[in-house]
Design goal:
The protein is α/β, with parallel strands linked by helices. The longest helix is centred in the first third of the chain and has 21 residues. The radius of gyration is 19 Å and the shape is globular. The protein starts with a strand and ends in a 7-residue tail after the last helix. The structure holds uridine-5'-diphosphate-4-deoxy-4-fluoro-alpha-D-galactose. The site of uridine-5'-diphosphate-4-deoxy-4-fluoro-alpha-D-galactose has 20 residues, from helix 7 and strand 8.
Amino acid sequence: MRILVTGGTGYIGSHTVVELQKKGFEVIIVDALFNSRKESLDAIEKISGIRPQFECFDLADSTLTDDFFARHNDIKGIIHFAAHKAVGESVEQPIKYYRNNLDSLMNILDAMRKYSVQNLVFSSSCTVYGQPDAEHLPVSERAPIKKAESPYGNTKQIAEEIISESISAYKGLNAIALRYFNPVGAHDSAMLGELPLGVPNNLMPFITQTAYGIRKCLKVFGDDYPTPDGTAIRDYIHIMDLAKAHVIAVERMIGERMKNSFEIFNLGTGTGYSVLEVIKSFEKVSGVKLNYEIVGRRSGDIEKVWADPTYSNNELGWKAERCLDEMTLSAWKWEQAYRKGETCFE
Ligand code: UFG
């Protein structure tokens, strides 16, 4: 059973490929390597013993995308991760984000229709909820969609609309959108993990790089939020829990167990942690005292969000199992293995 994983050399994609292979799926990856490395294929092979097929091209190119599907007529499902994802960059270069994130999706949907591929799992984000009102916290899939804070967030909202409208228009198309909360952590083997290019934007890689001495000091953005310790709250979810949910979504589609032809699920733990709680967890599991300072708020940050995962738990039969300490420890093990040259990555 062959599954196309777009963006399969990236952070979430590569972990998902390993889980798909574990369940016996044959994986073909398409990735333009804009923000990921080819060595992911070596790491995947080292973990699973199977090297996934790989093609390097940009899915925003309609001719190349059509040509790919014309050559591969046995694809049973697609997990579409490939997208630009840096919130700040999307504010500076909005057209880059709209063009890449939406053209690639539309090319895929066109090809699905033309070549009769029925099943699509789409990478969405809790960013679609913005800052939920107090009565919508924890936030469920039924909470209102807020105006996006960034072009990146807007591409996720528009993408969900494009998928929904395509499904209404074209019979036979099924999709599941997975709204991720904050994915962190690494594979248990420490052979795969998050590998940001340049200075990390996100909290966890900034923590591990600071602990390793790559960065001097972690800036904690704001301690005057209306939260118990004043720092912002997020629902961090272990990358392996997230990866497993994708496999379950694919099996649900192929096994024809969907309740509607377009389903949306939150992927979070249901527990929110503050920035200081994440730092404390990291210090506890690593034994490293982290150098950090409190600075002003980061513009565009929301104060608190965490998931109501009840619908995913009940419908998908999936539950995030790993706690915050497992997330911070696996991220730390990965950072050390990578820096010591013990992984496939240079
Ligand atoms: N933070 C710091 N210092 C840092 C980095 C982050 O204090 O150096 C704080 C942030 O202010 C925030 C929390 O840590 O309170 C988490 O920040 P991240 O950048 O790790 O994650 P975000 O919640 O901002 O963004 C993530 C993804 C986006 C996605 C968004 C959805 O990176 O792609 O969740 O809410 F859109």
